[in-house]
Design goal:
With 164 residues, the protein is of the alpha+beta class. The chain is built from four helices and five strands, in the order H-H-H-E-E-E-H-E-E. Helix content is 30%, strand content 32%.
Length: 164
């Protein structure tokens, strides 16, 4: 198969059948469609993307790639507690927060893998990590990526005393 468009392949097939070619031409004329080359289609597509972007950013221009690709980071410090289900030499630890099959699991990245080695963690160990939760948001506020970076150990929560 070549890179030709379906229109070009269809036109090539119709060259041998003048009756069919005439019928298709009448149909296209009646529908008001026209043959356009790829550059025209791309130009129209870019113009419609620009119009959509200008709904949110009135001064958007095409050469700015519509301003929709701009991202900003949102950082927050959180505590992740759970058990280790995966360890990697690259400094990645998967922490599952519950025993249920669908319990959330977090990939916590250690910037210095040797720090992870010094902790001597094992699979199944319970851990309490302070992590930086970073989300990259696009200009519409939609999260494009999420990462968890180890900051240090978190104090274990003590159980509350139960009254008799």
């Amino acid at each position: 198969m070549t890179g030709d468009s379906w229109r070009e392949r269809r036109c090539a097939l119709l060259r041998d059948d003048p009756g069919e070619a005439e019928r298709v031409a009448r149909l296209l004329d009646r529908l008001g469609t026209e043959n356009r080359d790829d550059e025209e289609i791309e130009a129209e597509h870019r113009a419609s993307r620009l119009a959509a972007a200008q709904e949110y950013a009135p001064y958007a221009r095409l050469d700015e790639e519509l301003q929709l690709r701009e991202t900003k980071d949102r950082d927050q410090e959180i505590i992740i507690s759970g058990r280790i289900t995966e360890l990697r030499e690259s400094g990645l630890v998967k922490v599952k927060t519950g025993t249920a099959k669908n319990a959330p699991a977090y990939d916590v990245r250690f910037e210095k893998p040797e720090e992870l080695l010094r902790m001597r963690p094992g699979l199944g160990d319970n851990v309490h990590f302070r992590v930086r939760f970073r989300q990259q948001l696009d200009s519409m506020g939609i999260a494009r990526s999420t990462e968890y970076t180890y900051l240090g150990p978190a104090a274990e929560q003590t159980s509350l005393p139960l009254e008799p």
